[in-house]
Amino acid sequence: MDKFEQERLDKLQKLRKMGVEPYGKRYDNTQPIKSILDSFVPERTDIKVKAAGRISTIRPHGKTVFLDIRDWTGKIQAYIKLDKVGTEKFELSKLFDLGDIVGVEGVLFKTRTGEITIYVDGFTILTKSLLTPPEKWHGLKDVELRHRHRYVDLFTNSEVMDTFLKRIKILKYIRKFLDDRGFVEVETPMMQSIPGGAVARPFITHHNALDIDLYLRIAPELYLKRLLVGGMERIYEINRNFRNEGISTRHNPEFTMMELYQAYSDYNGMMELTERLATSLVKELYSGYEIPFGARKIDMTPPWHRATFCELLKEHSGVNYEDEAGLVRKSKELGLETEGVDRDNLANNIFEQVVEQTLNNPTFVMDYPTSICPLTKVCEYDPRFAQRFELYIASMEVANSYSELNDSPEQDKRFREQLGTEVDIVGKVDEDFLTALKYGMPPAGGLGIGIDRLIMILTNNVSIREVILFPLLKPK
Question: Would you call 114 helix, strand, or coil by DSSP?
Fold first, then answer.
């Protein structure tokens, strides 16, 4: 224990000896600090207010004390004067420390410097803080420490609090947007006996009573499609997915996905829906369509660019999809694996290495090779390509969509072919899903949006850790 913590413990004991409970009690009828500031009327001196928050600065001046108190809506100054509160109360104020949580009440006035202030006629100690917050309330600066001590990060860095309040606002907006269009929110299992709906390495757990291994879901897709079979025609789930893979500024093993399905639509319908949702969100948060993202600017003005996978591959890598020898040469030039890699995966690997980084403004990349889209209908103009798009913004994949494959025999065939090529998937076919398809699933468009990445873009945070309250971290 350092001397500063000991000093705070000594003050805690003094409070108790004075008959004051340093961990407070219920404190009713407080007002958000922002609403208090908004309620100020210069001509009036009788506006009575009551606030609670954490002390961010203390400035004693003899028989007066100025405090800055912060809650999650803002900061306000409080003025404590010996003549106003009396000697006993004023002595209590000398035991305040930065980080203490207090309640204050009084009337509003404006100081000579023009600051709206509470002239305190009563205060209550609600929580004594035993650890010193970051020096001079400038907030935590060490990124690793900020993520480990998010609780301190939130109350010392107002822009961090603002990010997470915006995240909540964005999620509420998405739900309302979909609800207004006739979608209903559903819940599907997070523990699954067979992981499906994506190609990823799952986390494995064990159910003791049944003595079976289960997998934390990598995607809710196959359960949501069962609901399409059951007759739920417009459904969505804002869900947690888990993928036992790497950690980076764009990847967290536990992440949030919004996945939806609309019967009788297709990937073109999903493009329209995605563009309307994202552009209306931008208008909600910003005055225009150009938004900052790190050192770059993103123009979100609709309509967004649409181009096929093959067009963009040719444009940015100089290689034609049809030219398998050229794909091999380009792959070797980029240091990519070529041994035993088929044409579609050669092309996709080059795309990821070369093309993705060029896609700054929103771009719908359409019509991927069918072999890497096992749950997707083929394009009518060429069955080698699938009715799939991925949306890229700021060089990141933000959304993925299919015209959903509802041909049961074809889906069975593709599942069994996939088992022989994907080393990271559990070697089982979801037979119950195939049974569901045999009963008949309506034609549908499906869409998945990476919520964390979308929020990164909408809040100008270039690391996914800045938009997840408690990102996974390496143990100390």
Answer: coil
Q: Cα 132 to chain center, whole Å?
A: 30
Closest C-alpha to 47, from 58, 36, 56, 57: 36
SS3 73: coil
- Comparing CA positions, the residue from 251, 304, 297 lying closest to residue 277 is 304
**Long-range pairs for 66-69: beta carbons < 8 A, 24 or more residues apart:** 66/117, 67/96, 67/102, 67/104, 69/33, 69/102, 69/104
Rounded CA-CA distance 89/96 in Å is: 12
Extract long-range pairs of 282-285: CB within 8 Å, 24+ residues apart. Answer: 282/458, 284/173, 285/166, 285/170, 285/458
Span of 154-158, 220-224, 297-301, 382-386 with lowest mean pLDDT:
154-158
Beta bridge partners of 390: 365, 400
C-alpha–C-alpha distance, residues 379 and 385, integer Å: 6
What is the Cα–Cα distance from 397 to 399, expressed in whole angstroms? 6
Q: Within its chain, how far is the Cα of 46 from the centroid?
A: 43
Cβ atoms of residues 51 and 103 within 8 Å: yes
Sign of dihedral through CA atoms 120, 126, 129, 132?
A: negative
pLDDT, tens digit, 9 for 90 and up, residues 5-19? 999 999 999 999 999
Average pLDDT, the chain: 94
3-state secondary structure 196-208: CCCCCCCCEEEEC
CB 47 within 8 A of CB 64: no
Give the DSSP H or E segment for 173: helix 158-179
> Is pLDDT above 60 for 425?
no
Beta bridge partners of 404: 376
Predicted TM-score of the model (pTM): 0.93
Q: Which two tokens stand for residue 126?
A: 């609600």
In angstroms, rounded to a whole number, what is the distance separating the alpha carbons of residues 238 and 231? Answer: 20
Predicted confidence (pLDDT) at residue 423 exceeds the cutoff of 50: no
Tokens for 123, please give them.
């205060």
Dihedral of alpha carbons 373, 379, 382, 383, sign: positive
Distance CA 108, CA 78 (A): 9
d(C-alpha 233, C-alpha 473), whole Å: 39
pLDDT for position 1: 76
Q: How many CA atoms lie within 13 A of 212 on its CB side?
A: 7
Distance, C-alpha 260 to centroid of its chain: 17
Phi then psi for residue 162, to 5 deg, are -60, -40
CA 369, CA 383: separation in Å to the nearest integer? 9
Collapsing DSSP states into helix, strand and coil, what is residue 237?
A: strand
- Identity of the residue numbered 382: D
Task: Give the Cα separation of 195 and 208 in Å (integer).
Answer: 19
Counting residues of the chain whose pLDDT is more than 70, the rounded percentage is 97
